[in-house]
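From the pipeline queue, job 12 of 40. The input is one protein chain; the requested action is below.

Action: predict structure.
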Amino acid sequence: MANQVMFGILSAVILAAALFCVTTKRIMRAATALLFVLFGVAGIYFLLDYTFLGAVQISIYAGGITMIYIFAIQLVSKRTLQGLTERIKGSRVLAGLLASLAGLAIVVFTLIKYEFVNLAMTQPDVEVPMETIGTALMGAGKYQYVFPFEFISLFLLACIIGGLVLLNHKKEEK
């Protein structure tokens, strides 16, 4: 019962922080809300007794949020960081709502098509061993994720270098 209550609290925090993260225009507030989302996900990992994944979530993603703070301070003007006004446009809210509903429909369709809910109800005590998760995340075979992780790391490195180049270009113009 306590696990369900904690899951409900963590889910509420994650949803509220994620909603705030995508609706605010202030970059520092968005990064802080993203930090709360990632800590909430780490809390769910700890709740599931996946302590290693929870620790990795905190250490790696908290460091990533620190990098977002650093780049936000370096790349954005002081006036933008202060965010003097914050306006929400109706068309953007409508577009975001439609995109969210489309994503929800895809998730529900996937859950129904592959019968994940029925499988979870018929085998509630089946636990996936950590070795299987590690092999799936770091394997190079079919349906394993080492290549996407490597691609994402190179993509993020390119984004960091591009941001620094833009920052230096703006300083040279002034």
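Job complete. Helices lie at 2-23, 27-47, 51-75, 78-82, 90-113, 116-122, 130-138, 146-173.
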